[in-house]
Design a protein that fits this description.
The complex is a heterodimer of chains A (496) and B (497). Chain A has a two-stranded antiparallel ribbon with strand order 1-2. By secondary structure, chain A is an all-alpha fold. In chain A, helix 12 runs parallel beside helix 18, helix 13 packs antiparallel against helix 18 and helix 14 packs antiparallel against helix 16. Helices cover 76% and strands 2% of the residues of chain A. Chain A has a domain of 210 residues. Chain B is mainly α and 497 residues long. Chain B has a domain of 212 residues. Chain B has 18 helices and three strands. In chain B, strands 1-2-3 form a three-stranded mixed β-sheet. In chain B, strand 2 and strand 3 form a beta hairpin. The chains are: A mainly alpha (496), B mainly alpha (497). At the A-B interface, helix 17, helix 18 and helix 19 of A face strand 2, helix 5 and helix 6 of B.
């Protein structure tokens, strides 16, 4: 059982999708517990996998006992062993959180929602666990298709936003697939480890260069890297609360993981940095993404839409860390996969809770919310401080490593971008916090007496995951030294 | 130099953090219990801090490492004489401010009192963290916490003016924060370490252009909270905060954290040897001297009492930085001691401003004529503290200025002796009319000529701080060898020379 852990990570949520469908059609209420059981089991499997990796090194799991490169192989090293628990933990939190919001927003689609939810998580986990380029494509499409379906369930603009995303996403997937095709044509292999071994001899080949470029563009679309992010703000704004809370923290992070995997494991770092200036280009695009995302966020009056642009900016951080191409930059990027997952999880869950209780989410309408929902708002403040990068929240520590990486790479402009983005984020979030907490009133203090403190706090199934995410943001920062020394420092691809 | 591992600095930081949680969960319904937590925490904190003094006076260093943050740098507390000095000062003044705060917010029936006490407690935790931080990163972490926790206090009144004051405060301090962050990371990338060391740890690392650049941006960064001109503008604006906030945070915790940071950079990161080598010390001293004079002139022009006090604060903070940057034993001693003596005197002055406001709702100096007859204790305390700030014996301001003056001569820089004297004259020019008018001028509108003071919860603390200022002037070592801590710190810094 223990040795099967890597495959169980994927198989459990996949199988439970059908279980949830069958039982759900019989009795709607059964879906929720089934999803929770599935995700908890999968989470345990990811922890077990991480444990095996830490104690005995990289796991190679051969599906159906077919030897690679012919069979599909799941390979778990420190990098994906680190990402896997993040994905399934976020998924559990969102699953717990979804109960009330799904009842309210999607009351007639509960069963289908939960089935696709599980498929979505299966896709994310599969992308991360696999060691095969084509298998990765399959999971990428599972995740994307599930994403289109989930987003369509949202509010008025959702079907159009989802269609838009579908077109972009499909182009991205095609590009990725073309990339796989070119590599296969040149090497005859789809296995990542095999490719890594075969490719260095072919680094001069035009086929490889074109394939690599296809990968880059395809992944940039999937992870919403500026300027290919255009599908994201609409899609994530109009999606149901639980869906944005699941997709926002995960889709972009999984994309970042694949990016690291492709450009530094499948291809050797010296190819992506020296033979092609891919890493340098990535840095500049990332810097533009950081500034553009934050600037666009400034222009929004809708809180959720503002967060989607902040997400675009956060993708820039991840890409910058990857592009810097040194130990500290990569440490920052990998650490930010964890930190940003928690930050975005907290923020999107809070917005969902506000909408659940309050109906609206315009920034100017948020007054008094700190009295009505004190705990939810406290977590919002913590998450906001983390995005700004105020210590001791976790966001500070990703910024620390990213800036350190940028200094090591002598990328002074990137240092400036990272620092300036802190200020932009501060303006963004303190504007909201001011709206929530402070009320300009002239002269006498009017106490609103009919407002009982905490009377409209989020329901417990929402509040608990929100509080856990908030606690995570506060504690992960201080623990980051430990996380880096036990996992991340080994997760950095060879060659750095 | 003996090092002892002790959890006490961590406890001193945690006690107010726990209190902050208790305060917020107790809430407005049980306000007496809530205030009890504040008082209890302040007393506990003070006793924890005091219990560390004997070790530090023995020349030992208390150290506690919480967790490794990044290779070579831990979240670490390290209590040396300088940190101890600041810790004693802040924790002692918090007790008095707590009592005074309760009198103030209840006297004015302020809103959002729970938020107020919660943030106050967080601020004190952060200040203690700054005092005991063992390296630049730990210091920075608490420095930023202080920034954020102070913001709701500055914007407390929630009027248009208060919100703008709060924004301005954030813009200044967060910008400073990222500048410090950049410098910190840069130093880390140069040396792989950030631990403070008496006499500095950067000697021989990096080119002199790099080091000069780092020094400039670090001083600019910490100089914002220390309100060095031209980065001072937030401080007078932040005077919109409730008076106890101005008192503790803008006379002791926040601005002194800035000065503390500057001194840590000057004396514990760069160090006298390196600064002499780079020829930066004299430039900084002139820079500070400029602030000393100009802020004194500004103060003359203010009619709002708290704004005048704010400019006087800017003046005194610059004097401290100037003393430290002269790098002679007596000027460093005087500078460090002035952190404490100015703290006691300035908090008295702010307490007085608050007491006047609670009793009469007057904020402007031109309205204070004749009030001394109604509030003799308050104005008496004001007179003592104001004399002290001007450097008149036997108040403690005299001691620090005496050492600063000797230090200027030791450094063979007579100019700064004159700067000190001019600043003292300016102090007299902007404080003495207040005292004179309050006691001797006849009031414009009839004042109650009988004894009619502000609530005792406010008057007693301000009298205590005034008396302590006097005692420290006569016996500088009266409390916990206060002066010795300063001179020992100076000795250790220059011992490395």
């Amino acid at each position: 059982m223990m040795l099967q852990a890597p495959v169980l990570i994927v198989v459990i949520p996949l199988m439970f999708t059908f279980v949830a469908l069958i039982f759900g059609l019989w009795k709607k209420g059964l879906c929720y517990p089934i999803v929770l059981i599935a995700l908890s089991l999968s989470f345990l499997a990811t922890l077990q996998t991480l444990n095996i990796v830490i104690t005995s090194g990289i796991i190679h799991y051969r599906l159906g006992n077919w030897n690679p490169p012919w069979g599909i192989e799941y390979v778990v090293d420190y990098l994906n062993a680190f990402v896997l628990p993040v994905i399934s933990f976020v998924a559990i939190m969102v699953a717990i959180y979804s109960k009330k919001s799904v009842e309210k927003e999607l009351s007639d689609k509960v069963v289908y929602f939960y089935c696709i939810f599980l498929l979505q998580v299966t896709g994310f986990l599969g992308i991360t666990v696999t060691g095969d380029m084509f298998n990765l494509y399959v999971f990428l499409e599972i995740a994307s298709l599930a994403g289109y379906a989930l987003i369509t369930m949202g509010e008025d603009g959702a079907p159009f936003a989802s269609f838009n995303y579908l077109i972009f996403g499909t182009i991205g997937a095609c590009f990725y697939l073309l990339g796989v095709g070119y590599l296969y044509a040149a090497t005859g292999s789809l296995n990542m480890a095999d490719l890594a071994r075969l490719l260095p001899d072919l680094y001069g080949s035009k086929v490889i260069l074109v394939g690599f470029s296809f990968f880059m563009v395809g992944l940039a679309i999937k992870m919403a890297l500026f300027p290919l992010h255009v599908w994201l703000p609409d899609a994530y704004t109009y999606a149901p609360s639980s869906v944005s809370a699941l997709l926002a923290p995960l889709m972009t992070k999984v994309g970042a993981y694949v990016l690291i995997r492709v450009i530094y494991t499948v291809f050797k770092p010296y190819f992506s940095i020296e033979i092609l200036p891919a890493a340098t280009i990535l840095c500049w695009i990332a810097a533009a993404a950081i500034i553009f995302g934050a600037a666009m966020a400034l222009a929004q009056t809708d809180l959720k839409r503002m967060l989607t642009y902040i997400l675009v900016s956060e993708v820039g951080y991840l890409a910058l860390g990857v592009g810097l191409g040194n130990r500290n930059g990569l440490t920052g990027a990998i650490l930010h996969i964890l930190n940003d997952a928690f930050m975005m999880l907290a923020l999107f869950m809070v917005v969902g809770a506000i909408m659940y209780r309050h109906g609206g989410r315009r920034i100017s309408e948020l007054r008094y919310l700190h009295k009505k929902m004190p705990f939810t708002m406290a977590v919002f403040v913590v998450a906001a401080l983390s995005v700004i990068g105020i210590p001791p929240t976790c966001g500070f520590f990703s910024k620390w490593y990213l800036i350190l990486g940028a200094i090591n790479a002598h990328g002074w402009i990137f240092v400036a971008v990272l620092l300036a983005s802190s200020l932009l984020n501060a303006i963004l979030f303190f504007r909201v916090i001011e709206n929530i907490y402070l009320e300009p009133h002239d002269g006498d203090i009017v106490e609103n007496h009919d407002m009982v403190a905490g009377a409209e706090e989020s329901p417990l199934t929402m509040l608990v995951p929100i509080l856990i995410a908030g606690a995570g943001i506060l504690s992960l920062g201080v623990l980051s030294g430990k996380i880096i020394s036990t996992i991340i420092q080994f997760a950095i691809p060879a060659g750095f | 130099m003996e090092t002892i591992v002790s959890i006490r600095p961590l406890l001193a930081v945690l006690v107010t953090l726990v209190a902050a949680l208790l305060i917020i969960f107790t809430g407005e319904k049980h306000r007496n219990l809530r205030e009890f937590w504040t008082i209890l925490a302040s007393l506990l904190k003070f006793s924890i801090v005091i219990s560390m003094v004997p070790f530090v006076l023995d020349g030992k260093i208390l150290k506690y490492t919480i967790i490794a943050l990044t290779p070579g740098v831990s979240l670490q507390f390290r209590v040396d004489q300088f940190g101890m000095f600041f810790g004693v000062l802040a924790s002692a003044l918090w007790i008095l401010t707590s009592v005074y705060s309760i009198g103030y917010v209840r006297g004015l029936n302020e809103h959002a009192q729970t938020r107020y006490f919660f943030n106050f407690a967080i601020c004190l935790s952060a200040t203690m963290g700054i005092a005991f931080a063992g390296n630049l990163l730990t210091l920075f972490i608490f420095y930023e916490i202080l920034t954020v926790a102070t913001y709701p206090l500055v914007a407390h009144k929630e009027t248009e003016e208060a919100i703008i004051g709060g924004r301005k405060y954030l813009v200044y301090t967060l910008t400073a924060g990222i500048v410090i962050l950049f410098a910190t990371i840069f130093i880390y990338s140069l040396t792989g370490s950030l631990d403070f060391k008496a006499g500095g740890f950067l000697l021989g690392k990096g080119s002199s252009a790099t080091l000069t650049f780092l020094f400039v941006i670090l001083i600019l960064g910490f100089g914002v909270k220390a309100a060095l001109m031209p980065m001072h503008e937030w401080l007078p604006t932040a005077m919109v905060a409730p008076t106890p906030v101005s008192a503790l945070l803008h006379a002791v915790a926040v601005v002194k954290a800035g000065v503390f940071g500057c001194l840590r950079v000057i004396l514990y990161v760069f160090g006298p040897v390196l600064l002499h080598k780079l020829d930066l010390w004299l430039i900084l001293a002139y820079f500070a001297a400029f602030t000393v004079i100009v802020s004194g002139l500004y103060a003359l022009a203010q009619d709002n009492l708290k704004r005048r006090l704010a400019f006087s604060t800017i003046n005194n903070l610059a004097i401290i930085v100037m003393g430290a940057s002269l790098l002679s034993p007596n000027s460093i001693t005087g500078g460090i001691f002035h952190i404490g003596s100015h703290g006691f005197m300035k908090i008295t002055l702010f307490f007085v401003a608050g007491a006047i406001y609670v009793k009469t709702h007057k904020e402007n100096i031109s309205e204070l004529d004749g009030l001394g007859r109604q509030m003799p204790l308050t104005f008496g305390a004001f007179a003592i503290a104001a004399m002290g700030v001007a450097g008149t014996p036997p108040v403690c301001g005299f001691i620090s200025k005496w050492y600063l003056a000797i230090g200027a001569l030791e450094a063979k820089q007579v100019v700064f002796l004159f700067v000190l004297l001019i600043s003292a004259l300016l102090d007299i020019a902007y404080f003495f009319p207040i005292i004179f008018n309050a006691f001797f001028k006849s009031p414009k509108e009839p004042v109650n000529p009988h004894f009619n003071e502000a609530p005792m919860r406010m008057v007693v603390p301000l009298m205590i701080t005034a008396i302590i200022s006097l005692i420290l002037g006569i016996f500088p070592n009266a409390f916990f060898n206060f002066f010795n801590l300063a001179s020992m710190a100076a000795g250790r810094i220059l011992g490395g020379m």
